[in-house]
Design the sequence.
């Protein structure tokens, strides 16, 4: 177990702090897998959990949290829990409905951080999370992320979430949001790896006191979300990554996670494998030097794995 006190903390623009590494729960099925992953992670020293309405596994995550609290391993205040509002809930009267469901499923009274999951909006409906026409084309909604975000601001006032932010937003969208936001988003969660270094976006956000958070930091190796052969680049076997792993007596995953932390970012590491969950947080007995961070960033090819192809026609598609 890693001592949770040794885990680097980031400080948000509202003064609140969060552990720099969190357990991601995307593609962690509610068949016992995500329950075991969350329990294991908490036992290993993780205190940050990254969830979302659309992951469809909140109830199991919530049970693992409840059992970890009941056993005395942690208290609720020890944990930092993030979730995300889904695109079918962006109308101002629907954001609270999504939040109510999230809290109910997680068996919590508040979230530490709530994000707008994507800048696009889908048809506002309770019938399906993926409203589509007869040709399987997604049906775009007529609301805007500004409306959803302003509704989130009200949830901060009500004490249902302590911080709010966005995910998958580009610079222009953040600029537009900041013109009307009463509460500045604390972070923007995006895909990030050395092959998609996001350095321009990171610097842009930093200038505005917004933290960049990385998802899919390992390049989605072996992900069942993608068809076979879709992932073209093997980041875990990149020669530079392997050279640094050998130098620091770490594995490639640990180098890639540390790369983000040493750039002042938060990073979400998803796994349901107990050994990988354990090793992914074993990051705080070394750090990369500035030249190594720059070398890794120089690998940038703007190679994005999660392009959300079905949403390219939408007005707020970010890429």
Sequence:
């Amino acid at each position: 177990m890693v001592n949770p006190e040794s885990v680097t903390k980031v400080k948000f623009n509202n003064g609140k702090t969060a552990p720099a590494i969190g357990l991601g729960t995307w593609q962690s099925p509610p068949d016992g897998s995500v329950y075991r992953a969350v329990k294991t992670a908490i036992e290993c020293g993780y205190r940050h959990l990254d969830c979302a309405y659309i992951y469809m596994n909140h109830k199991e995550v919530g049970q693992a949290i409840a059992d970890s609290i009941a056993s005395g391993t942690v208290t609720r205040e020890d944990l930092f829990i993030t979730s995300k509002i889904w695109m079918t809930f962006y109308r101002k009267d629907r954001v609270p409905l999504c939040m109510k469901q999230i809290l109910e499923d997680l068996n919590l009274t508040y979230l530490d951080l709530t994000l707008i999951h994507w800048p696009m909006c889908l048809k506002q409906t309770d019938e399906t999370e993926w409203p589509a026409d007869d040709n399987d084309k997604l049906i775009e909604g007529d609301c805007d992320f500004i409306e959803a975000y302003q509704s989130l601001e009200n949830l901060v006032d009500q004490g249902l979430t302590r911080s709010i932010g966005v995910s998958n937003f580009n610079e222009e969208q953040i600029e537009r949001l900041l013109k009307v936001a009463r509460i500045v988003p604390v972070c923007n969660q995006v895909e990030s790896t050395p092959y998609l270094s996001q350095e321009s976006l990171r610097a842009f956000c930093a200038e505005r006191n917004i933290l960049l958070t990385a998802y899919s930091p390992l390049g989605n190796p072996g992900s069942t979300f993608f068809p076979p052969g879709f992932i073209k680049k093997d980041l875990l076997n990149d020669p530079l990554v392997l050279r640094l792993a050998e130098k620091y007596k770490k594995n490639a995953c640990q180098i890639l996670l540390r790369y983000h932390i040493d750039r002042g970012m938060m990073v979400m590491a998803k796994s349901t494998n107990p050994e990988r969950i354990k090793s992914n947080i074993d990051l705080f007995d070394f750090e990369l030097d500035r030249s190594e961070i720059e070398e890794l960033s120089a690998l940038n090819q703007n190679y994005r794995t999660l392009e959300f192809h079905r949403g390219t026609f939408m007005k707020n598609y970010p890429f």
